[in-house]
Amino acid sequence: MFSVDTYLSTLGWTGPVEPTARTLRELHKRHMIRVAFDNSAHARLGTSILNDIDIDLDAAFDEIILGGRGGVCFELSGLFRRLLTELGYDVIILSAGARGASGEFGPDFEHLFLGVRLDGELWLVDVGFAGPSFIEPLRLTDEEQEQYGVTYRLIRRDGYHVLQRKGHVGDWQAVYRLKPEARTLADWNGSATDTPDDDDPGWNWAGQLVASGTVIHGRSFDTGQLILVGRRFVRVDNGHEEVRVLVDTDEYRKTAEHILGRDR
């Protein structure tokens, strides 16, 4: 059963709960560190998992926040939305299309995350994207923003805001594109559930991975993120990125258990 006090305890937050930017940043980062992204419970369902995103929050709370299962975007963002709303934040639902390996973006309703209206600004709040992404919320602004050695910016292109990130090495890389428009859960009905079409470049990264049953794990730590997509392992720490394939089965298993918090 959903409980604000229990949720905050799980996140390890004992500070003030008034809706401020500082508290929002703290809760977001703690959520990213303590609650893993994990699609393994859903991967076998393929695209059908996208057909019903209006979840039972009490059941999800018991399984994820209390049970430590980990979850996917609409589960994690759904729970965090409930928490923030209970704490008095002005929260809206947002959608995005993730950048695929080819550089193309997925459909607009490929990913669900949140926006928080606070102090006259809109903050992007996303605890349900495996990454690499951002650890603390970002303001919707033309200004560059830096977190833990990674610089972020939002550029306007073709009617979208494109979120890009850059570490210490390399060029800007897009994360996803969005329109800062409030969505409803009903907007997902039929929007991201079509069968992938080989002739449609818009069906991309996330949709293809879900359809293929690829298992994805992700979790943040104090200065970076760990992401495991299949056997491709990405570690980002203070803006330095390491990417390698975990060929050894034992190393893969131990890495997955570490990301999911099962080795504690």
Automatic annotation (TrEMBL):
Pfam families: Acetyltransf_2 (PF00797). Keywords: Transferase. The keyword Transit peptide does not apply. One of its GO terms (molecular function) is acetyltransferase activity. It comes from the Bacteria. Belongs to the arylamine N-acetyltransferase family. This is Acetyltransferase.
